[in-house]
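name: query_chain
kind: protein
chains: 1
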Amino acid sequence: MELNWKAIVIGFAATLALGIVSGLIVAGTELMSLATSWAMIGILGGLVAGYLAAGTVSTGAVHGGIATVLGSLITLAIVTFTTLLFAGVVPTFGVLVGGLLLIAFYAIPGALGGAVGSWAHGRRAARKATGARA
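structure:
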């Protein structure tokens, strides 16, 4: 399987943009809102990457997972750096280790969104090929 890096970069950009907007909107709210926000960001970013990858469902899942993990790694690097600047070394180490442990969980919503996006693209292409109208 060959990776479509254009789809991954666009999915990464969507994940990063949604993460920034969500961070501004959901900051300081309860934990359930944060978990829902995290899942929705991953699903939507993966959906973009999977739709643009335009392969099988498994290809879309891989592209969505990679795009979401890249977005999460960049966000983790920014959070770790700001924690180092404002909180010190020990809290920074805790943020870094906790974030690295969560990276695998960030791939799950991205892969789910990528699979759905790739499926939707295939369904749309099949509908165009048969000439059916919605």
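note: The radius of gyration is 17 Å.
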